C-alpha cells in the first residue's frame, strides 16, 4: 500500500454509557477502526460488547463522548440521516432474527426493505433484480438450494448464514456481528466465522464482531479489543498474540475468584477451577503495549 493512511471508518472517543443511575455499561471507551479491519470485541457476559456495538449504528447513544462512523457524528444524526447510516451498516445477531414462517429467500429480501418504498408481502412483490441479487447472496453463503424452504427448517448455522445474506442485501460498508456464533456448535461457529472473514476480504468490508471465546477471536480477528466491566483492557493486533497472553491479561485485571472462574469458563472454555490468587486491583495494572 502507498500514500497517506486511510482515515478511520469508526472512531469512538471517551464514550461512557449509563443506563439509569446504577448501571455504567461503558466507561471512557476509545476505539478506532480502519477500513477493511476485522475487529473482535472480546469480554465476559455483561462487559459491554453489545452496548458498544449498538453505539456504532445509533441503536444506543453515549452519555458522554463521541461516536463517528463513516464520517458521521452518530449521536447528532436526525432520523432520516440515521436511517441512511444504518443502511450502510449491516448487523447480525446471536439469535439470527429471521422471520421463521417466511422462506429463506424472502428473509434475505427483507434486507433490501430500507431501500424500497411501501410494504412488501410475498416474494413477487419484490423487483426481479432484487430477487436475483438475493439468490446470488444465498449462493455466496452456500444456501442456494434452501431458497424456498421455511427459515425455521434450517439449522442454527444455516440460519446465521441466511442472516449474513440478508445483511449483504444492504451492500453494507460495515458489518456489526453481535455474538454471531454464541448459539452455534463449534463446527458451525467455525463455518460462520470463516464466511464472515471471506466476505470481509472479498468485499473490503469492515467488521466489528463481539465474541466471548479467545480461540475464535485469535483465529478470525485482525485485532482484539478486550472489554472488562465496560472498560477497554486490551487493544492489540492478533499477529503473534497467544491465547495464554490474552488469558494472562484478563487474569491480571480480575479482582475476584469468581471473575477468574468466569474468565476461565467463558473466555477459554476451561471447566476446571482456575488457580486462586490475590488478583491485583485494576488500577495497579501497569500499562503495556496494547493493554489499556
Ligand atoms: N437497555 C439496557 N438497560 C439497562 N441496562 C442495560 C441495557 N443494556 C445493557 N445493559 C447493562 O449494561 C451492561 C453491559 O451489557 P452488554 O449487553 O453490553 O454486555 P455484553 O458484553 O454484550 O454481554 P453479553 O455477552 O451477555 O451479551 C450489563 O450490565 C447490562 O445489564
Automatic annotation (TrEMBL):
Coiled coil: none annotated. One of its GO terms (molecular function) is ATP binding. It holds the Pfam family ABC_tran. PROSITE patterns: ABC_TRANSPORTER_1 (PS00211), ABC_TRANSPORTER_2 (PS50893). InterPro entries: AAA+_ATPase, ABC_transporter-like_ATP-bd, ABC_transporter-like_CS, ABC_transpr_PhnC, MetN_ABC_transporter-like, P-loop_NTPase. GO terms for cellular component: membrane. It comes from the Bacteria. Residues 10-254 form the ABC transporter domain. Keywords: ATP-binding, Cell membrane, Membrane, Nucleotide-binding, Translocase, Transport. NCBIfam families: ABC_phnC. PANTHER family: AMINO ACID IMPORT ATP-BINDING PROTEIN, PHOSPHONATES IMPORT ATP-BINDING PROTEIN PHNC. This is Phosphonate ABC transporter ATP-binding protein. It comes from Pseudofrankia asymbiotica.
